[in-house]
Amino acid sequence: MSRITDIKRREIQLIKIAQKQLGMDETTYRAMLFKVARVKSSTQLDAAGRKAVLDHLKSCGFKVMPKPNEWAFIDNAVKNRQPLLRKVCMVCKSLRVGKAYAEGAAKRQSGVERKLEMMDTVQLLLLVGALEHTRKNKESRNG
Questions:
Q1: With bands split at pLDDT 50, 70 and 90, how would you rate the model's confidence at 75?
Q2: In a 3-state reduction of DSSP, which class is residue 70?
C-alpha cells in the first residue's frame, strides 16, 4: 500500500471515529460532508477535503485521543531485561507491528504463550534474533 493511500485510509478512519464520538446519525453526517466538502461519501474526499472535514469536526468538539503506549511497561521491567525489551520494541516498530506480533512470534518459537514482561533473558535474546531475521528478510524483498 502506498504512503498516500495509507494516509487517506487513516484520515477517513478518523472522520468515522469523529462521527461516532459526536453522535452524528448517517443523515446528519452525509449533510455535513456535502456542506463542508461537496461530496456524498468520505471516500470521495481529496486531501484538502479530508482536512476541511476534520477541521470542521474538531470545531464541533471532536477530540483526537492518543493511542495508549503498549510499550510503556518496559520502564517498569526488570533492569537487566530493559535493553532487550527496547530492542524488541525498536524492531517491531521498524516492521510496523505491535507487541502482540512479538508475543505471537515468541509463542511460535517456543510453543508457550507468554507476555513479553514474563520472558527471561534467553527467551528475549531468541526473540530479538527471530524478529531481526524477519526484518532483514522483509528488507531484502522490498529492495
A1: very high
A2: coil
**Phi (first) and psi of residue 73, to 5 degrees:** -60, -20
Q: Hey, where are the domains in the chain? A: 3-59, 72-142
Q: Give the dihedral of Cα atoms 50, 55, 61, 64; nearest 10 deg.
A: 60
Query: Nearest Cα to 110, choosing from 96, 94, 122?
Result: 122
19-58 tens-digit pLDDT: 999 999 999 999 999 999 999 999 999 999 999 999 999 9
H helix runs in the chain, sequence order: 3-21, 26-37, 47-59, 82-95, 99-110, 121-142
Phi-psi category of residue 61: left, alpha or beta, with phi > 0 → left and psi -120 to 50 → alpha: left
Q: What is the predicted pLDDT for the residue at 97?
A: 93
Q: How many CA atoms lie within 13 A of 20 on its CB side?
A: 6
